[in-house]
Amino acid sequence: MIGGVFVSLSFGDIFGDLFSDDASDRENFVDPNSDIIAAQETIVAQNPDDLEDLLLLANLLGNSNRLGDAIPLYERALEMSPEDIDARVSFAHALADGEMRADAELQFERALEMDPESQQAHYYLAELYMGSSPARTEDALIHYRRAAEIDPGTLIGERSQTHLDTMGIGTPAATPASASSTPVEATP
After folding, report:
1. pTM tops 0.90, yes or no
2. Which of 2, 72, 114, 185 is the most exposed place for a label (fewest CB within 10 A)?
3. How confident is the model at residue 184 (pLDDT cuts 50, 70, 90)?
């Protein structure tokens, strides 16, 4: 995405499955984003080569549990701009939300091959690993550490550090003794 960062949270991540007990509720549910999606679809139809508008529509669809509609848009965006790290990370995150874990991992890894300093790719890949069954804790730790080191002052850096702290693991940047090359002598 040009000129911004997109953080994606799906409806299900926040509220869970509200319709698990009643099929009639699911049939009567009206997506609160439907008007926004319709407007964005019109914008994309009028200017199909606008990468930013295309990604916005893909993100809206992905966040509205319409991953099947979003995937071709993400793929088209990546065809238009294969080196766009934000597009690839957004695609990977949507795939992860849609439980397409292997595809998500592949996209996160591609993003990190293109930009090893992508804090979002490190963080969301760590989240993917922690959500695996069983959790891939060692793999997740590597990426949480890297995300915390890249920029500890961002929300993602802080969340990564919180995960590390919760797991009883610190980062080298967070340990004052590691910043010094002079050994510390214990005093009696």
Report:
1. no
2. 185
3. very low
pLDDT digits 0-9 by tens, 60-110:
999 888 999 999 999 999 999 999 999 999 999 999 999 999 999 999 999
Cβ contact 40:57 at 8 Å: yes
The two three-digit tokens of residue 42, written as one number: 């019109």
**What is d(CA 92, CA 185) in angstroms, rounded to the nearest whole number?**
48
**Is a pLDDT exceeding 70 seen at residue 6?**
no
CA 90/CA 145 separation, integer angstroms: 21
How many angstroms separate the CA atoms of 107 and 101, rounded? 10
Calculated CA dihedral for residues 81, 61, 163, 139, nearest 10 degrees? -50
**Per-residue pLDDT, 5:** 43
Q: Which ranges constitute the DSSP H helices of the chain? A: 11-15, 23-28, 34-46, 51-63, 67-80, 85-97, 101-114, 119-130, 137-150, 155-166, 176-179
Mean pLDDT, to the nearest integer, of 142-164?
A: 96
Q: How far apart are CA 62 and CA 42, in angstroms?
A: 17
Number of other CB atoms surrounding residue 64 within 10 Å: 18
